[in-house]
Structure of Transmembrane protein:
Amino acid sequence: MHPEVEKFRERNVRTRDMGFGLAVIAVLLWVWCGVLLAMPYEVGPGFSGSTRKCEARLLTDEGTANVGRIQAPCADERDWPKVLAVLGLSVPVSVAACALITYGSLSFRMSKHAAALAGLRESDAREEKEKEEEKDGEKEKGRDGE
């Protein structure tokens, strides 16, 4: 195989692997968002000096820091905009991951397909050449027999 084809395929594999790396990052952002929403948490010591246990943001009926009560340390600690920012950050990362995976995989497959077609053309040309040589050999035998 030609060295340039090897380099092209290696670049495609690296591009695809970069896409998988970004996909892992996007999954980690989704997991982090899920943890922030679904796991109970504690708020550190405030004015009273004691910690306070808070229920998960997904399961609470209380408002957030933007519309919550005056003294709502749980809502202040984990506000919806912060959680949605993590989720929003995962969207462009996911899109970039999908694009890189698709581009790398498709380019690699197209390269293999082109190599297979070139091999088929080469074998067809070889077969035609062999048939022509057989015909030429038969013609020469026919001339020799005359």
Summary: The mean pLDDT is 81. The chain has one domain: 3-145. The first helix runs from residue 3 to 38. Strands lie at 41-43, 52-54.
